[in-house]
């Protein structure tokens, strides 16, 4: 047993995560979170004066971990697991403590509030936020650059009404005095949602478009305000928490994840599952893609795509493509830049699974892996000749199908985008001195690159901006 624990400790990363300690019967006796898993978990096995800690260590028979991207995410996962398992040694957790949410009220002219209680009142709740300093910074920024009304009265816009003092202080849009339209007000509320969801790039793009519109209308004061807002947003840094982890696990999802854990004999609940698929057109534009589900829900910010490098253009080899994709994906886990999943799903059969396993083993890793084949929906497991067949209404199979369908959708979308880039690119774009505007004029006038190559220099020179030297350069390049 000591050797088993020693081996576990050696392989723990110096990265954030949650650890679960189990006794010899497999029961979870303690759940903890760490900024650096290896340092924190290893500390339990040094000498302690505390009888409680000594008793805990004496009962530990196994340790499993869930890697998270940030310490904030680890706090949330820890709290969820403690509520579910109620471990004997987690007596210090105050179950009444809750992390705060930002609430956008369900009103015609919404307000912004901070609350620790999430109610079924039609309002939009953003969070939870585990860092008090972080939420204070966001509130200050929103109050300065995205102020909504602070009063609780019902708003009835009246242009004859005098705006309140909050408007004069810049803390309100003056909706009650009809100093803004309802659409303008709701647009600002939408900006706040993006801000608190951490979608800075999308919010900045919206603000930049408005800034440019104001500049074109010579409304330089408004444009300057948008500029200052953009700068303030980029200066503000905060921990990102996956949207999938912002909601509590409902009973149905909890049961599904438990079912998957039991089916595939996982050491820990599969909070994070990776799924892989390959997409190409007759060997061209081959991409390997990975999607991530957290708590049974997609986490698009963790999706990854890989342009396959090991194959020649036109060469078809889905097995080699899967091997390359999986290996490149988990190299990032090894260097601790990506979190490790609790389960890996391969879209395919036994052969694809074999190549994915080979990639994992060559990296010196050991991740639980399965493959889900289309049509008959058979589940292939490592070192098992016969696949597992689940009933179509099995909740575990249905979640795996959603994962498989999502990675297939993502890989197809990735491939179509790449193919679209080729369609929009012509051989004219590769000729030095020929800009996109000239190339477009040539294609509009003559229809295709093939037809342009058959023209004479005199015919090409009928296009504005093309002289004898440029015409010769075009024809020489197209007829090589």
Average pLDDT, to the nearest integer?
A: 84
Helix/strand/pairing category:
alpha+beta
Helix content: 40-55%
Strand content: 5-15%
Using only CA atoms, what is the Rg?
29 Å
Shape: flat
Helix-strand blueprint:
Layout: H1 2-10, E1 17-22, E2 28-34, H2 37-43, H3 51-59, E3 62-67, H4 71-85, E4 101-104, E5 112-115, E6 124-126, H5 132-145, H6 165-168, H7 182-196, H8 200-216, H9 220-235, H10 251-263, E7 272-281, E8 284-294, E9 297-298, E10 304-307, H11 318-334, E11 343-347, H12 350-362, E12 369-372, E13 378-380, E14 388-389, H13 395-424, H14 436-446, H15 449-453, H16 457-460, H17 468-478
Parallel strand pairs: 7-11, 11-12
Antiparallel strand pairs: 1-2, 1-3, 4-5, 4-6, 7-8, 8-9, 8-10, 12-13, 13-14
Quick gist of this model?
This protein has 480 residues and is an alpha+beta fold. The chain contains 17 helices and 14 strands.
In words, what does this structure look like?
The structure is a single chain. The protein is an alpha+beta fold. The protein has four domains: 84 residues, 3-Layer(aba) Sandwich (GIY-YIG endonuclease), CATH 3.40.1440.10; 98 residues, no CATH class; 155 residues, Nucleotidyltransferase, domain 5 (2-Layer Sandwich); 52 residues, Orthogonal Bundle (DNA polymerase, domain 1). It is 44% helix and 15% strand. The strands form three sheets. Strands 7, 8, 9, 10, 11, 12, 13 and 14 form an eight-stranded mixed sheet that branches. A hairpin with a 7-residue loop joins strand 13 and strand 14. Helix 8 packs antiparallel against helix 9 and helix 11 runs parallel beside helix 12. The chain is flat and about 90 Å long. The protein starts with a helix and ends with a helix.
């Amino acid at each position: 047993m000591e050797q088993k624990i020693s081996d576990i400790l050696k392989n723990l990363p110096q990265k954030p995560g949650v650890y679960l300690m189990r006794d010899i019967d497999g029961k979870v006796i303690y759940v903890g979170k760490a900024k650096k898993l290896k340092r924190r978990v290893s500390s339990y096995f040094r000498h302690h004066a505390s009888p409680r800690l000594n008793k805990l260590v004496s009962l530990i028979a196994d340790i499993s971990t869930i890697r998270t991207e940030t310490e904030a995410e680890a706090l949330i996962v820890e709290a969820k697991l403690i509520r579910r398992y109620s471990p004997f040694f987690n007596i210090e957790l105050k179950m009444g403590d809750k992390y705060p949410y930002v609430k956008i009220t369900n009103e015609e002219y919404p307000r912004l509030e901070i609350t620790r209680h999430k109610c079924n009142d039609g309002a939009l709740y953003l969070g939870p936020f585990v860092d008090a300093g972080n939420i204070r910074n966001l509130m200050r920024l929103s109050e300065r650059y995205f102020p909504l009304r602070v009063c609780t009265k019902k708003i009835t816009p009246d242009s004859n009404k005098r705006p309140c003092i909050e408007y004069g202080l810049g803390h309100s849009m003056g909706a009650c005095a009809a100093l803004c339209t309802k659409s303008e007000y709701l647009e600002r509320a939408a900006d706040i949602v993006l801000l608190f969801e951490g979608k800075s790039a999308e919010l900045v793009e919206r603000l930049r478009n408005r800034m440019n519109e104001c500049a074109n209308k010579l409304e330089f004061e408004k444009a300057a305000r948008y500029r200052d807002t953009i700068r303030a947003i980029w200066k503000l840094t905060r921990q990102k928490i996956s949207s999938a982890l912002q909601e509590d696990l409902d009973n149905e999802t909890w049961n599904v994840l438990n079912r998957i854990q039991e089916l595939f004999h996982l050491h820990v609940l599969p909070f994070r599952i990776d799924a892989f698929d390959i997409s190409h057109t007759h060997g061209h534009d081959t991409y390997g893609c990975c999607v991530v589900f957290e708590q049974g829900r997609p986490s698009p910010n963790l999706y990854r795509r890989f342009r396959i490098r090991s194959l020649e253009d036109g060469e078809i080899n889905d097995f080699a493509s899967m091997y390359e994709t999986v290996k490149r994906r988990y190299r990032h886990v090894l260097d601790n830049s990506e979190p490790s999943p609790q389960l890996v799903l391969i879209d395919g059969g036994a052969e694809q699974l074999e190549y994915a396993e080979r990639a994992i083993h060559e990296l010196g890793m050991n991740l639980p892996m399965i493959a889900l084949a289309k049509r008959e929906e058979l589940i292939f497991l490592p070192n098992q000749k016969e696949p597992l067949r689940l009933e179509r209404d099995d909740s575990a199979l249905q979640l795996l199908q959603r994962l498989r369908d999502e990675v297939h959708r993502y890989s197809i979308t990735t491939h179509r985008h790449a193919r679209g880039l080729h369609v929009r690119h012509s051989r004219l774009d590769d000729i030095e001195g020929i800009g996109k505007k000239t190339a477009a004029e040539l294609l509009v006038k003559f229809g295709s690159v093939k037809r342009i190559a058959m023209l004479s220099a005199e015919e090409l020179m009928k296009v504005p901006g093309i002289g004898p030297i440029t015409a010769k350069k075009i024809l020489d390049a197209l007829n090589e």
